[in-house]
Amino acid sequence: MALNIKNPKVQELARRAAEATGRTQVSVMEEALERFLAGATQVRTTDANDRARTLIAQLQAEFGPEDLAGAHADLADLYDSDGLPR
Questions:
Q1: Cα distance between residue 6 and residue 62, in whole Å
Q2: Which of 27, 31, 49, 77 could form a disulfide with 23 if both were Cys (CB 3.0 to 4.6 A apart)?
Q3: Can you spell out the DSSP letters for the chain?
Q4: Around Cβ 28, how many Cβ atoms within 10 Å?
Q5: pLDDT tens-place values along the chain, 86 residues long
Q6: What are phi and psi of 63, to 5 degrees?
C-alpha cells in the first residue's frame, strides 16, 4: 500500500532527516516509526503496571486479612476434598 504524505511539515522533516543522515526519506521515517512504536509499547506497559499497582493498593486499603479469610472460607464450601466443584 502506498503512503502519500500531504503534510508539509512532515515532508520537510523527512527531507531534512534524510539529508542529515545521507539516507533515504523512507529509511529515516521507517526508523523513526520503529523507535516510536517501541517507546509507545513501553509506555503502555508501564501505564498498565502503574494502574495495577494502584488498584492493588486500593484493595489492600479497603479489605483486611479478615476479609480474605472470609473469602477463602466461602470458596472452601464450593469444592470437595478433591478440589472438584460440589
A1: 53
A2: 27
A3: -------HHHHHHHHHHHHHHTS-HHHHHHHHHHHHHHHHHHHHHHHHHHHHHHHHHHHHHH--HHHHHHHHHHHHTTB-TTS-B-
A4: 20
A5: 688 999 999 999 999 999 999 999 999 999 999 999 888 777 777 888 888 999 989 888 888 777 777 766 677 778 888 888 88
A6: -115, 135
